[in-house]
């Protein structure tokens, strides 16, 4: 019989807790997307394919930019970006509305990150989206998602997962997010 290894048990318990948290977080995104699907003003493109994501990653790396974090890749596999009520999370490719091809264009991650990096030289950040006065990024050094103030580009809020950032951003605009009680 194997001896009880408390350290190993604690690591397994922590991994199980983290996996449970990730599943709950993705369910939160799914629930918010279900709400937004009822709004004609929401642009929610088809899921990104493995090929779409691989091409996007390849182009980012070829430009000397950082690849996408796994949390955002998981989001793209279900929703290839989103635009709603002034909030935009970028897609693997540019998307226009089928009913208005000359109207709003959901921009792609490669173009937006190339422009963001050229303009601000924030090599440690992957730009994921923006809204009003904020950029939404992933900081590769801290491995955290961030809400950056548009002008200063200083982080004013940080998150452990993309789902937490999404809930804060989109859920907040829907009135679902309560900072005190979350």
Helix proportion: 40-55%
Structure annotation, total helices: 5
Between the first and last Cα atoms, what is the distance in angstroms?
44 Å
CATH fold node name: SMI1/KNR4-like
Radius of gyration: 18 Å
Could you state the order of secondary-structure elements as H and E? Answer: HHHEEEEHEEEEH
- Total domain modules: 1
Overall pLDDT level: 86
The counted number of beta strands is 8
- Named at the architecture level, the CATH assignment is 3-Layer(aba) Sandwich
CATH superfamily label:
SMI1/KNR4-like
CATH domain class name: Alpha Beta
Low-confidence stretches: none
* Estimated structural class: alpha+beta
Please summarize the sheet with the most strands: 6 strands, antiparallel
Q: Indicate the overall shape.
A: globular
Strand content: 15-25%
* Arrangement of strands in the largest sheet: 1-2-5-6-7-8
General description of the model:
By secondary structure, this protein is α+β, with helices and mostly antiparallel strands. The chain has a single domain (6-174), classed as 3-Layer(aba) Sandwich (SMI1/KNR4-like). Helix content is 43%, strand content 22%. The protein contains 5 helices and 8 strands, in the order H-H-H-E-E-E-E-H-E-E-E-E-H. It has helices spanning 6-36, 50-62, 70-78, 109-120, 162-174; strands at residues 82-84, 87-89, 95-97, 100-106, 125-131, 134-139, 144-149, 155-159. The protein is globular, with a radius of gyration of 18 Å. The protein starts with 5 loop residues before the first helix and ends in an 8-residue tail after the last helix. The relative contact order is 0.14. The mean pLDDT is 86.
């Amino acid at each position: 019989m194997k001896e009880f290894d408390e350290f190993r048990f604690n690591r397994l318990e922590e991994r199980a807790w983290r996996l449970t948290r990730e599943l709950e977080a993705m369910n939160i995104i799914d629930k918010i997307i279900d709400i937004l699907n009822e709004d004609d003003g929401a642009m929610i493109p088809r899921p990104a394919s493995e090929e779409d994501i691989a091409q996007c990653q390849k182009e980012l790396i070829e430009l000397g930019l950082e690849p996408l974090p796994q949390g955002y890749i998981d989001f793209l596999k279900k929703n290839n970006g989103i635009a709603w009520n002034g909030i935009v999370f970028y897609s693997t490719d540019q998307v226009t509305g089928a009913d208005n091809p000359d109207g709003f264009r959901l921009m792609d991650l490669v173009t937006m990150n190339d422009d963001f990096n050229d303009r601000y030289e924030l090599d440690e950040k992957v730009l994921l989206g923006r809204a009003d006065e904020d950029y939404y990024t992933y900081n590769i050094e801290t491995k955290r998602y961030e809400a950056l103030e548009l002008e200063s580009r200083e982080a004013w809020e940080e998150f452990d997962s993309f789902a937490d950032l999404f809930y804060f951003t989109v859920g907040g605009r829907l009135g679902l997010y309560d900072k005190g009680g979350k």
